[in-house]
## 1
Amino acid sequence: MHKLVSPHMLRFHDWYETRNNLWLILEYCTGADLESLLKQDGHLPEASVRMFGLDMLAGLKYMHCMGMLHCDLRPRNFLVDEHGILKIADFKMARKVPKVPLGDTPLDARGTPAYMAPELFLAEGVHSYTSDLWALGCVLYELRRGSTPFGDSTTMPLAELIENINTKEPVADKDNGRRASSSSSSSSSSSSSDAALPAMSAKLADLLLWLLEKAPMNRCD
């Protein structure tokens, strides 16, 4: 963590050890995290999503250029400093790009289910740059619409969440984005519920559909 030095990464200052604990001294961000912001406001204007999204992408690009994956991107792991700049935090699951499949790795060591890419639920799956980008897409969707795109394992059975991640289209608005207009029958059945959600521009919808491609090789990279 001390090697990650960027305006969009939470800064590590020092550490020390006592008899029972290891203490880290980290940068203090007065703006709390995006999860707290969502609890307060419900969802954000698209202009704010765009501004925060640029910060997220800058931080993630820096990590990826350093050969590192975050593996647990979600709103609570983005902090806001006193200048309104977003910083990636919580690197306990961060790792170098792995070369072997997940195999029997427990689910709680793979990430947070609501933000995990479809391949991460498989034994042959592997964390990658594109799985981080999938999680970024989930966070951007949540910032705009106030909920995760496929559901949450705290409010639905895990099996149902995984089924949604594998089969459900994230954006069903028929007039939003070139790929959203050709959504499958499963997505069109949910278009009426999407209509009640905060509006989303065609550009944002199209970006989310690119980030949330089911197949990793077709996903934004």
## 2
Amino acid sequence: MLVNKQSEAPVEQRTIIFLHIPKTAGLTLYDVLNREYGRSNIFTFEGGRQRLKESIERFKRLSMVDRARYRLLRGHAPFGLHEFLPNPYAYVTVLRDPVARVISHYYYIRRNPRHALHGQVAGMTLKAYVTSNLTTELDNDQTRLMAGVGDSIEFGQCSPALLDQAKANADRYFLAVGVAERFDETLMVMKRTLQWQRFPLYTRQNVSRHKPYAADVSSKTRCLIEKYNELDCELYAYAWKRFEKDVAMIEEREAKLFHLLNAAYYPYGRAYSTLRAAVRKLRAS
């Protein structure tokens, strides 16, 4: 029976905490989590600095009994949510190549008028955005979240000690650290590690359209992103090695069955997602 390294509690008795790093296919994973854990058993911490703070305070105001009933916590919150849980816990997350993540984040802001930075970023080039210091999400954000400091450290002040803390947290508290570029295998690793009862069938959600691939961006801009995210690059490489070991534990027959089932599910899932988006748009109008 799989257990967390710092406790003897079995996985099925734990509250799972999905540390959702922005632009790492998290919303696609949300649909999988909804089916596996049930919406009523999930507490979602809202995005944005103020809304996140309010969500955390709302969760802290719940009774211990109410906090303990949630099977899953998720959101753009840094490591540390376990401090508010009375019961055993385990973390999971998904990392992404830092260059690709920053590019995706830039185009997401440009196409989303409701984003707080849209007005400032809409007229910027990618290179200007990378060097703008507008948000700590451009400065080793994956390391910040994994280490548990979030935006509490000023832009440009991340130290190698922060990377060491992120790695230590990954080793001690995270049952699975996935890789966005290998999403199918990430889901299969989570299915095995978290002992999911159903296959994690999915369709892509919140995908940035009309954006270049990382390889299409100029070498100077790529180098700038890597410079500002040096710790993230190291953390990603570290996680990749661990991920390879986890993938090797997946049974080939199980992986093939998942691919077949997901291929059959995909048209249905796309139609459902389109209908749901239309309903949300009508309700908002």
## 3
Amino acid sequence: MKTIRSFLLVILLGASLSGCGNASQPAAIPLGESMKGYELYSWQDSGQWKFSLLVGTNREKTLDEIKSADNVLSSVDALQAKLEEIPAGQYITWSARETLSFPPDDIVQQVEQTCKDEGLILSVAS
């Protein structure tokens, strides 16, 4: 009987402690339809163009949020791959402000073509 009680105590203790681990980031959610579309930002860093593609909201994103390591796409190829994950028909608004800017025309044209090929509606807000 004592063995059974000890066994049950160990199981109960293990079950209660299993929820005490460090909180972790939730798994990345695949891009899907967004009621507010998506927001695209770009900037140059050490001679390289960086991008951030965020789900659209009613509020203005902070620069820290835009440039967060979790959101930065380090190349045009990475941006194009991310755009390919978005369902056709979604709106993408590309804007610049403060330390954000638009890349040269050839890169803008590449992004425009990718959006067109994927059925995305790109609006470049100058």
